[in-house]
Every structure is written in structure tokens, then in C-alpha cells.
Amino acid sequence: MIIIHNTSQVIPLTANPQRGSALGTLNAIEHGAVAIEDGKIIEVGAAAVLLERYPQAEKLDAQGGAVLPGFVDPHTHLVWAGNRAAEFEMRLQGKTYMEIMAAGGGIASTVSETRRVSLDELIAQSHQRALAAFGHGSTTIEAKTGYGLDLDTEFKQLEAIFEMNRLGPYELVPTYMGAHAIPTEFKGDTAGFVDFLVETALPEVKNWWLVKAEGQALPFVDVFCEQGVFDIDQTRRILCEARELGFALKLHADEFVNLGGAALAAELGATSADHLVKTSLDDIRAMADSETVAVSLPGTPFSLAQSEYTPAKQIIAADGYLALATDLNPGTTWNESMQMIQALACRYMKLTPAQALSAATINSAKAVSREAQIGSLTSGKQADLLILSTPDYRDLSYRYGANLVRTVIKRGQVW
User: Fold this and answer.
1) Tens digit of pLDDT for each residue in 389-405?
2) Torsions phi, psi of 157, nearest 5?
3) What is the pTM of this model?
């Protein structure tokens, strides 16, 4: 057993996700302590009480730092090869994201490089990003495919996610995103590619996963529902087939145009709808009437120098679930830090530091269907914790550009 003590504050949050105005409920314990055994949280409470109750426990000195749950990053494109710094320069010269895609750049560029490299090289590049995210406090990270767009490379990405989970110390949540873009093989034939996804890819991914990852839940399935990619009817068809096959659903929606993807996500019972920059109030209300989590990715409009962000205040006012994620990817926001995401959410979406922290932990755990296991310091949950180098959790949002995580604990192991 380990007891974390000599804290400035312990931030347990709540056992369950926080909807609407409840977002930001921290239940802070000044100078609290956390008892951990066999990779689980045993008890959270006053330090004097826990130290007396468990006198034989090993002591871990927090050195006056704040203690809080590990961050959960519920939307990343972690597994890719290559670099697109040249496109960043193109954007600075006035090219839009969609113009770069139309010119053969964007996702297609990363697809080409990811197809080219070996599995070992793909793992090596992606593992370094995952370690950086872990070092900044992300103990659980969703990871999408979608830089293959053919079955061989999509399987290579899934294999990389599977093998990286063995490497750790981080924990990855897999998502199959064959519907990330239209590959060159189907240029001008989006309908044909949708047929391929529905009739061939989804069944083969399911069969591959059941053999490779026996006993593990199927990956999520995600679709980029956006003008110039997959329209609302095509998205519905792909997601309905995925649901019929037993996959849980996610959805890229309303990043550039309000096509109604958020309402579709709610209708289909998707676990989350992500981006949501252009989402209408009607779509926000539809999500708020469901269990679908609205996942905001403030790093993306920030990196694109855009003025619009997810309408977080409207989501909260509608009594919806709001979570935060990095959207880590090579094209629009290469950022592994959920600390930076909280800082952006406070500045551009006007969240409080408490709301941003809740959105990056217990609510983001719900966005990957792990809220029963992680996301809060609750007895019986997995012991995923952070010890900060600062005594005040608010510094995570107040400060930016520095890593304020001193110690990461994953499944009770200190890193």
C-alpha cells in the first residue's frame, strides 16, 4: 500500500461525469491524502486520518504539490508517420485547410508516409508522442487510425496501437477511422469508398480485432462528417453499419460547416461528437438530451488562427456534457499537452480552471466510456494520479508553456 501525503490539496472530483452547471465540482480536500493498493484507489481523505489508519503503508511525499486524477485525452490521431511543417508555413501564407487538402496535402500527405513506413518505425515515432503526452499528465489516450485508408495500413495502425498498449506506461483507447478522408484510389468516387467501408472494411476490421485482441472490446468507429469529406447521409450509413456490427460510435462534426453531425451523433447514441465549432443551438440541445459527450478541441482553432471555438457556455447552459481533448495530429495541432488545452479552454471558451479540469478528467473519461474506471479519485477506481509541482490546481490553466506535472502514477505505479 502507498499513501500520498504532504499535499497542498487533493482534487477528487466526482465519481460520475458532470453535466451542465455541475461542471467544475472538485470536492477539494486541503492537505488531503490518497491511499493506493494493488493499482486501485482505496481511500481519499484527511492526511491525519489515513496515516493513522494505515500505519504500515509506504509513504509518498507530494512535497506540497496538488494531487489530482490523471488527464484523459479522448481525441487524438496519435499514430502517424512523417511531418507536415511545410503546410504550417502554407497556412501562414494564406492557404486554408481545405485548400491544402484539395492540392493533395493535408491528410493525404500523412497517408502516403504512414503507408510507406514499417510497423516498427510507425510504433517508434508514435511511442515518443505518447510518452510526451504521458509526461504531461495524460494517463489514458484515445488513438485513431485513419492515416491508411486502405485495409493493410489501417491494420498496421491498429497493430501499432495494440503493441504500444503493451509498451505503456500510458493506456490507449483504440478507434478505427477508415472514414477520415477519401483516398486517392477513390478520388471522385466517395460513394464507392463508402460502399467499400460498409461492405468490406468494417466487417474485416471486426474480424481482425476479434482474432488479434481476443477478449478486448471492439475499437470505436469514427467518421469525419464535413463538407468535402463525408456528408450526413454517408456518415449515417457508415455509423449505422458500425453499430450493427457492435462497434461503439464517435463522430467528427461541425468543424467547418454545420451539417447536423452533432444531432446525428445524439440520435445514434454515439459516445461523443467532437470539434463542434459550428454546431447550432438546436444540435446542442439534441446532444444535451442524450448521453453523447461534446468534446471540444481548442488546440485546433488556435493552431489554425481561427476566431471561433466550441460554444462551451451554450453546451453547459443546455445541461450537456462537455469534455476537452488535444486533437493531437500532424496537420493542424501537434500538441501532446492537456495542460495547454485547459489553458486555451479558459482563455477562448471562458471556462473556469475548475470546469476545464473536470472536462479534462471525469468528463473526458466518459467520452471514451471509461468513467467507471478512471477520471476521478474515487475508491475502487484505477489509481491514475498526478502530483503537480505547484500547490494550486488553477496553475494548470493560469500558467502555460511549462510542464507542471512532477509525478505521474499509472495503475498505482509511480513514474
Assistant:
1) 999 999 999 999 999 99
2) -65, -45
3) 0.96
